[in-house]
UniProtKB/TrEMBL annotation:
Record-given protein name: Terpene synthase
Top-level taxonomic group: Eukaryota
Organism of derivation: Favolaschia claudopus
Cofactor(s) the protein needs: Mg(2+)
Record InterPro entries: Isoprenoid_synthase_dom_sf (IPR008949), Terpene_cyclase-like_2 (IPR034686)
Enzyme superclass (EC): lyase
UniProt GO MF annotations: metal ion binding; terpene synthase activity
Stated family: Belongs to the terpene synthase family.
An individual GO BP term: isoprenoid biosynthetic process
Length: 336
């Protein structure tokens, strides 16, 4: 492959939220990694590579105000997400559906033992949710179960598109990716981490839905720009926003990155405008002081999520190995 260079834009150059990290990170990471490794989900070498991604770090950066107990749950969530992702990446649609069905049944029935001989991912999901759901408000539990179901459906859809080498339009891509990036289940854990108890009518209000969508879209675009090199080298970049833009806009890598950067700027402007509307009650009702305060905390949590996710892209070894912090400064990515 010829040497290719692209430059990552400073998408968060004016973002109001700075970097925070949970003080319980080290302890929660140790506990969650030990829990996952107890299942022996990977070979020793594959487990070493998996651990270098440091999925506990993304939890510590995106849930910086969680208690020790809840941060551990957030770490377990990320380990469940990415273990399922590793398992399904190399499988065809029928096998992907079987694994997704197992995790769905486990989430719906966390007190029910998994069938003997089933893939271990079912038991991983069961144990994760059984622990995490303790003392969680009922609406929050319901939102997680529903969002998990939607997420799994999109994982199956992605497997079908991958098997057909289908490059979709940008609108199709974002519509599908919004579900399989796993943000909606993660946002439920944002509620848990902040000890919120918000009714469905609040969380289903169009302005809150819009803020969630904007946050999700920013996560998708940042993720895809950072993961593009890794996916190109693995010959798995068809399902990436950079490729989608390059194909649909008939441009090169630089043009694709610029298009995404410009679009990201538009999303930021929209997020901040909607946030202001919610805070000032412009088209957003008041549910009383307590609920209004919780809504403000939730929106602040979304803003922190964006910063934390961006920090993890460079602070973990998932996309850039040991050079992440250097690339965060230089913004230069070389594909060789």
């Amino acid at each position: 492959m010829d040497r290719q260079v692209y430059y990552l834009p400073q998408t968060l150059r004016n973002w109001p939220w700075g970097r925070l990290i949970n003080p319980y990170y080290a302890q929660a990471r140790m506990e969650s990694v030990a829990w996952l490794e107890s299942f022996c989900p990977f070979s020793s070498q594959a487990q070493h590579v998996f651990n270098k991604c440091d999925f506990s770090l993304v939890s510590a950066l995106t849930f910086p105000k969680a208690s020790h107990y809840d941060l551990r749950s957030c770490c377990d969530l990320m380990h469940t997400f990415f273990t399922l992702d590793e398992y399904t990446d190399a499988l065809g649609p029928p096998d992907v559906k079987a694994l997704c069905d197992a995790t769905m049944e486990a989430i719906e029935n966390p007190d029910k033992p998994r069938p003997e001989g089933e893939n271990i991912i079912g038991e991983i999901a069961r144990q994760f949710w059984r622990r995490a759901s303790v003392d969680v408000p009922r609406p929050c539990q319901e939102r997680f179960v529903n969002s998990w179901r939607t997420y799994l459906g999109s994982v199956v859809e992605q497997a079908e598109r991958r098997s057909n080498s289908y490059i979709c339009t940008m609108n199709e891509y974002l519509a599908a990716r919004r579900n399989n990036i796993g943000s909606d289940p993660s946002f439920v854990f944002l509620e848990i981490s902040l000890q919120l108890d918000l009714p469905h009518e609040v969380m289903e209000h169009p302005l809150i839905v819009a803020l969630n969508r904007d946050t999700t879209d920013m996560i998708i675009l940042a993720n895809d720009m950072c993961s593009y090199k890794k996916e190109v080298l693995a010959n798995d970049a068809d399902y990436n926003a950079v490729t989608v833009v390059m194909v649909n806009e008939h441009t090169d890598i630089a043009g694709g990155i610029q298009w995404i950067s410009d679009y990201h700027d538009e999303i930021i402007e929209h997020f901040l405008r909607v946030r202001e509307d919610v805070i000032k009650k412009n088209g957003f009702p008041s549910w009383g002081t307590d609920i209004d305060d919780q809504v403000a905390k939730y929106i602040d949590g979304l803003g922190q999520w964006i910063r934390g996710h961006d920090e993890w892209n460079f602070g973990s070894g998932r996309y850039f190995g040991d050079r992440g912090l250097e690339i965060q400064k230089t913004r230069t990515v070389v594909i060789t």
